[in-house]
Request: fold
Amino acid sequence: MKWVAAPVALSAALLLAGCTPEQQRGFLPAGSEGATNHTDGVTGLWVTSWIVLLAVGVITWGLIIWATIAYRRRKGQTGLPVQLRYNMPIETFFTVVPVILVIGFFAFTAQEQSKIEARYDNPENIVEVVGKRWSWDFNYVNDDVYFQGVQVQTDDDGEAEADTMPVLYLPVDKTTEIRLETRDVIHSFWVVEFLYKKDMIPGQTNYMSFTPTKTGTFMGKCAELCGEYHSMMLFQVKVVEQDEYDAYVKSLREAGNEGQVSEDLNPNQEKFQSDQAKAQNE
Reply:
């Protein structure tokens, strides 16, 4: 085995050295590197997982090919090969190793997820995101201003026109809490380069906490099938310096967008109140 291990290790090193940056990051979305304080951890978990699983696959494929060749029927052989009922060492190995792998993957995934799901005690920036068929509203809670989006328009080829997308502005390097609400059905808030998505459930507030660490424009979309124009429920996230963020907030205030988008436009709220009144009458 020692004569086999050295060439295998050398081959693996050469193969990994020849990978492009995209391949080394497991083909995750371009621009996700360092986008938030969580993306590097998610990337590390993802890349490590597929390397380990690829190694397991190579060993498994190798054993299958070896068994196929070593125990194939030779010329002149007849009848069945020797039948064995069990092999305790091999069966123990095939049971213990997968269990260890599953426990390991679960532990590291739970550890990374707990970091993402943890809420800041005093976030510097709070935004309430309201999903609606088929667009987005953004309440900038700290600054008491809002933005109301409309459905993305398409060109003659059916492609989304970028300048019609709702835009969520976030200041860079500020601890941020996103409060997720829906006005109608289930939606899902997904900023592709942030490598995390969170469902928006009627009657329930969900949270996503992170710190944007890189300025730029990132793509967002609804990740839960929500009806006819689900594919056009798109938005952009612009992570900007504080002065640019302040200028945007000022522009919203000057446009008369002071206050917050209320629950008055939520049909689920009307149904909830109706159900409450009906229950009281009964």
